[in-house]
From TrEMBL, chain A:
Coiled-coil portions: none
Pfam assignment, any one: ACT_AHAS_ss
Acetylation is among the record's keywords: no
One GO cellular component term: cytosol
Lineage, uppermost ranks: Bacteria, Pseudomonadati, Bacteroidota, Cytophagia, Cytophagales
Reaction catalyzed: 2 pyruvate + H(+) = (2S)-2-acetolactate + CO2
Protein name: acetolactate synthase
Main enzyme class: transferase
EC numbers, comma separated: 2.2.1.6
SUPFAM superfamilies in alphabetical order: ACT-like
Automatic annotation (TrEMBL), chain B:
Catalytic activity: 2 pyruvate + H(+) = (2S)-2-acetolactate + CO2
Higher taxonomy: Bacteria, Pseudomonadati, Bacteroidota, Cytophagia, Cytophagales
Keywords annotated in UniProt: Amino-acid biosynthesis, Branched-chain amino acid biosynthesis, Magnesium, Metal-binding, Thiamine pyrophosphate, Transferase
Domain Thiamine pyrophosphate enzyme central: 210-343
NCBIfam families: acolac_lg
Cofactor binding note from Swiss-Prot or TrEMBL: Binds 1 Mg(2+) ion per subunit.
GO cellular component, as recorded: acetolactate synthase complex
GO biological process terms, semicolon-separated: isoleucine biosynthetic process; L-valine biosynthetic process
Protein name: Acetolactate synthase
Similarity annotation: Belongs to the TPP enzyme family.
CDD domains listed in its UniProt record: TPP_AHAS (cd02015), TPP_PYR_POX_like (cd07035)
């Protein structure tokens, strides 16, 4: 065999704008599972536009694979648009919740300081437990687990990642164009047509 | 007889009360559907009940198995260019469609399949004959949808047809719960769909890529065209021919593309791929510009990708952006419907004749004739070959017939050697390679092209997979010529075992019933031959017989299909023996 370049995988954030349609999550998930690609994180929620959902999917792959996957996703009838970006191209956050015994927190002032240092916010205080919340990158939210573990952390949960694309103008304007062009006309997307390297879509 | 009087309903006024079943059938009539292939059952009975009144508008062909129904729908779609329509009941009826859906999906065949489903309130309860049809069919459909309320029917059916037939066509499945079929609602009319917000069937044609492609073509010394089914799916046969003839470029086809340019066109240099012709495979690795038109670089065409056309600049014309760069990295991607892109390209290219280059293909062809073809098509002694049966068929049909093939050696032989004068004349399971495809697909193909002769070429293995469809032929009275090439083996598997598994013939020995007797049982005429001198007369008898006819040709047992690009080899390593 000839020498092969090392495979360069990195985290990619795939942003998918879709119609709100039953079964679409399944269709999109299948595109990954069929190729044996693990989804590291998946968030789906309504977008700023009524009736349009936004998926944030994180996978660890090479750009070549990601671009092909993105085209396959965009091929689905209910998918309006797909973007993919490296971590550098997006602003991203995950949210974490931590449940700790209230008495420990109340007794040990040190814990309170640690929480403050980590930017945690109280969500709920009950007699038996208190829930804190932080948002941030993985390392940041992980840090607080380490801090709270010795103080009897009861439960921890972290959300999927959400990401906002730094460079784009967002999809809002583009969607309005889509809608203005209705019915039956193709939307001209010249600015993207001319930057094939950055945006894979037509 | 005690049948009730049937009335053929005229299109309903808006604001009349219709059942979901009636609304569905009206939708089909407006969509121009004339033939439905199907099989009833409990969960689709309201639709069949409504169908009872539609005899004048909608012909229903009762198949013998839902797999037969969907392959017939595929054959119909492929020969007619229209959308094939299939009905099946819930549960086992629907799951029997899966093979055909997968086949239609990979071969881009437009279908609308309607399945009945249990009452909505029973969904998810493991009710009698309930299956998660949407879940099961998601990976093998272009789109699917479950209707639980009759008022959704007009809009969803309109979307289904639009999605099935536009862009890169494909199968759509609509699952309708029984309550929705029965439910009466105020019908507000049926409007075909021509736009879905999130669906872009065709990418926008980009002038600069057309210009770049033309420039590459104009400067090429050894340009080579590969075409696939996309030419036919786009109804771009004329545009394709104009392009080919102006540029003078030699062109080769994938089996899905066969027939888009007549077999004897001087620039048609043959078939690509694993069992394709020698010249086009070797020359793929010699050309300087490769122009792929409506084909998807399937692995059966490319062989090893890392040794595929590495020297060439590649222009890829495709309607599906996801195909571009998927397998082979392009130099110039020409996104779009080739019906639109080809004329733009033809305008910009210089008129040329690549005589010397074309001559090289002829030299390879001669080499192949000497090594393989002459002996296959014109053997003077020994047992009959599959090739000579096809050759004789060509002589008699003069390339005017529709040839439907099953899967195996006979498929490769038929596709290689069949003479096709017209487009939509080669119907085969290309992407999925589904045995059992040909007999039902031939039935459908005939319904889709009633004025043409349809010949199904099938192996002794494949015929036994869907042989029950002889019953459909019997009942519908359709005229299909069935030619079984019987080598008493699962031939293609045996060939691989011979070549790659030291002749360890593991379970490829298959015995057959007396096919002529079987046909007779279904009221179909037949004949079996094993002597060369009977071949012409038997074929003549088959072709001139009024109605269906089954002809069994006993061919030599251990013949191999050559040339062949062995698995894992480059196309230029194609073997002549
Ligand atoms: C449904 C299905 N099962 C198995 C196969 C694998 N297969 C490919 S070719 C072949 C042998 C076909 O034998 P036959 O129909 O007799 O045709 P021949 O190759 O002899 O012409 C088999 C089993 C297939 N393609 N489809």
């Amino acid at each position: 065999m000839s020498e092969q370049a090392p495979i360069e995988r990195e985290e990619f954030n795939i942003t998918v704008y879709t119609e709100n349609h039953i079964g679409l999550l399944n269709r999109i998930a299948m595109i990954f599972s069929r190729r044996k690609i693990n989804i590291d994180s998946l968030n789906t929620s309504p977008s700023e536009i009524e009736g349009i959902h936004r998926f944030n999917i994180v996978i660890n792959e090479t750009e070549e694979v990601v671009s092909k996957i993105a085209r396959q996703i965009e091929k689905q009838v209910e998918v309006l648009k797909v973007y993919y970006n490296t971590n550098e191209d997006v602003i991203w956050q995950e949210m974490a919740l931590y449940k700790v015994p209230t008495d420990v927190i109340a007794e040990k002032a040190k814990v309170e300081r640690l929480l403050r240092e980590n930017g945690a916010r109280v969500v709920v205080i009950r007699k038996d437990y208190t829930v804190f919340e932080t948002t941030g990158h993985r390392e940041e939210t992980d840090n607080l687990i380490k801090v709270l573990q010795p103080f009897g952390l009861i439960e921890f949960v972290r959300s999927a990642r959400i990401a906002i694309i730094k460079g784009s103008e967002g999809f809002n304007r583009k969607l309005r164009e889509f809608e203005r062009a209705e019915p039956g006309q193709e939307v001209i997307e010249n600015e993207f047509l001319n930057s094939r390297e950055k945006v894979f879509t037509m | 007889m005690l049948t009730q009087e049937k009335q053929v309903p005229a299109l309903p006024e808006t604001d009349t009360l219709l059942s979901g079943g009636q609304a569905l059938l009206h939708a089909l009539v407006v969509e121009g559907v004339d033939t439905i292939f199907g099989y009833p059952g409990g969960a689709i009975m309201p639709i069949y009940d409504a169908l009872y009144d539609f005899e004048g508008d909608l012909k229903h062909v009762l198949v013998r198995h839902e797999q037969g129904g969907i392959h017939a729908g595929q054959g119909y779609a492929r020969s007619s260019g229209k959308v094939g329509v299939v009905f099946a009941t819930s549960g086992p009826g629907a799951t029997n469609l899966v093979t055909g859906l997968a086949d239609a999906q990979i071969d881009s065949t437009p279908l609308v399949c309607i399945t009945g489903q249990v009452f909505a309130h029973l969904l998810g309860t493991d009710a009698f004959q309930e299956a998660d049809v949407i879940g099961i069919t998601t990976p093998v459909t272009k789109w699917n949808y479950q209707i639980t309320d009759a008022t959704e029917i007009p809009e969803v059916i309109a979307k289904a047809f639009h999605i099935a037939r536009t862009g890169r066509p494909g199968p759509v499945l609509i699952d309708i719960t029984k309550n929705a079929q029965l439910q009466k609602f105020s019908f507000q009319g049926y409007t075909p769909c021509n736009h879905i917000r999130s669906y872009r069937p065709k990418p926008i044609v980009r002038k600069e890529y057309i210009e770049q492609a033309a420039e590459l073509i104009n400067s090429a010394q050894k340009p080579f065209v590969l075409w696939g089914q996309g030419v036919m799916l786009g109804s771009a046969e004329q545009e394709f021919k104009a392009f080919i003839e102006k540029t003078g470029i030699p062109a080769a086809w994938t089996i899905m593309g066969a027939g888009a340019l007549p077999s004897d066109h001087p620039q048609n240099v043959g078939m690509l791929g694993m069992h394709g012709n020698y010249g086009p495979n070797v020359m793929t690795n010699e050309c300087d510009v490769l122009i792929a038109i409506g084909m998807r670089f399937d692995d059966r065409v490319t062989g090893r990708l890392d040794k595929y056309a590495k020297q060439a600049k590649i222009i890829h014309l495709d309607i599906d952006p996801a195909e571009i760069d998927k397998n082979v990295k392009t130099t110039v991607p020409v996104w779009g419907d080739c019906k639109e892109t080809l004329p733009l390209l033809t305008q910009l290219v210089e008129a040329k004749q690549h005589t010397a280059w074309l001559e090289q293909f002829r030299e390879f062809e001669q080499k192949e004739i000497d090594a393989v073809i002459r002996e296959e098509l014109f053997p003077s002694s020994g047992e009959m070959t599959m090739g000579e049966a096809i050759q004789q068929l060509n002589e008699l049909t003069k390339g005017e017939a529709i040839i439907v093939t099953d899967v195996g050696q006979h498929q490769m032989v038929a596709c290689r050697y069949a003479k096709l004068n017209h487009t939509r004349s080669n119907i085969t399971s290309g992407g999925l390679g589904t045995m059992g495809f040909a007999l039902p697909a031939a039935i459908g193909a005939k319904f889709g092209a009633l004025d043409r002769t349809v010949v199904a070429v099938i192996g002794d293995g494949g015929i036994q997979m869907t042989i029950q469809e002889l019953g459909t032929i019997m009942q519908s009275g359709i005229d299909v010529k069935i030619m079984i090439l019987n080598n008493q083996f699962l031939g293609m598997v045996r060939q691989w075992q011979e070549l790659f598994h030291e002749r360890r013939y593991s379970f490829v020995d298959i015995t057959s019933p007396d096919y002529v007797q079987v046909a007779k049982g279904y009221g179909i005429a037949g004949r079996s031959i094993n002597q060369r001198e009977d071949l012409t007369s038997a074929l003549q008898e088959m072709l001139s017989h009024p109605g269906s006819f089954l002809l069994e040709v006993m061919v030599t047992k251990e013949n191999n299909v050559f040339p062949m690009v062995p698995q894992g080899c480059s196309v230029s390593e194609i073997r002549l023996k």
